[in-house]
Amino acid sequence: MFNIDDGWRVVTNLDFERASGFANAAFALLKRTQIPPFPVYFELFYTYATGANEQLNADVNDLLSRGGPIPIEDASLLCEKYLDIKDMDAKLREMSAVMVRKIDNVNDAIGNAMVTANSYSGSLQQASGDLAGGIDEDALKLLSSRLLKETRRMQDMNRRLEMELESSKDDISLLQRDLDEVRKQTVLDPLTRIPNRKGLDEQLAIEVTQAESSGLPLSLLVLDIDHFKAFNDTYGHLTGDQVLRLVAQVLKANLRSRDMPARFGGEEFVAILPETDINVAISIAERIRQAVQSKELLKRSTNEKLGRITLSVGVAQFQQGDTPVKLMDRADKSLYAAKSSGRNQVVSQNDLTDTPGSIGVA
């Protein structure tokens, strides 16, 4: 369980000094955790400093208790959870506006440089004409002074343009990092911190295409937590969330780096297993099922034993001509068979008899 820091109070109508104190505390935490001081992260830690949200404080305290920097992914998840910024399009629009401003600044700098260059070119042409017509010593000195002044102005303008371009290069690098971060967040389930349905669909389409062209095996697991609704109704959604995180952790611990776990939705998970035939996939599924069943759940706040949870798992292997939908459908039918046969077991497409129509999950 998370430790709640009782040192802060919920406050309203903050005066300047109190607000400044919270702001300083937020900046100190950003520095301590090495989180960039972007407005959204400042808001997160400012809210933490006020103590206005006990659950947010509990989650932040949990991260702080681990020591060292806080991964930016974890901070982003907290922002999504507590600051209601789930609309990634808003982030993209904000970054797009920054990019537009930067491009405008560069265009202005280039435009000014071109005006200066044209003026300098005109001065050179005029000087060339004066020299061709012959001038006395005093006129030559004035001409030289004017050209030197124009040259220095041109040099200054070039330096300003170089500085603007260098600044733009740095800003674009930061924007690229932010875009990469947004991209990661759009395909990440904020609760379990594994890919979501969008990430699953994208990767499964890639893997099916590769399996079709390479002829290498590809297997798919569809996993469902047995009686999860009843568990949620009995112990509450917060405890249910912990169970979902547990299953995600077990998946990550029992899959290879090239495999991909994902939360399909609700209490259902999927694992993509490239270059894996169905027999190996069945063994992996069984290992995951046993690992989940071996975990005895304990509510730390009361030491109440909550029992164990179990998984039903369906397994399917890619067949030439399969689409992602067809492959998922066979895995889904296998899962339905596992649940219909008593749950807490692994069933593969090899165990199925031909049944017309697509069968959903119970």
Automatic annotation (TrEMBL):
EC number(s) recorded for this UniProt protein: 2.7.7.65
Q: Which domain of life is it from?
A: Bacteria
**Has keyword Kinase?**
no
Please give the residue ranges the record annotates as the region Disordered: 339-362
Which InterPro entries is this protein grouped with? Answer: Diguanylate_Cyclase (IPR050469), GGDEF_dom (IPR000160), Nucleotide_cyclase (IPR029787), Rev_trsase/Diguanyl_cyclase (IPR043128)
Question: Could you list the residue ranges forming a coiled coil in this record?
Answer: 140-185
Q: Which GO terms describe its molecular function?
A: diguanylate cyclase activity
Protein name from the UniProt record: diguanylate cyclase
Tell me the organism's taxonomic lineage.
Answer: Bacteria, Pseudomonadati, Pseudomonadota, Alphaproteobacteria, Hyphomicrobiales
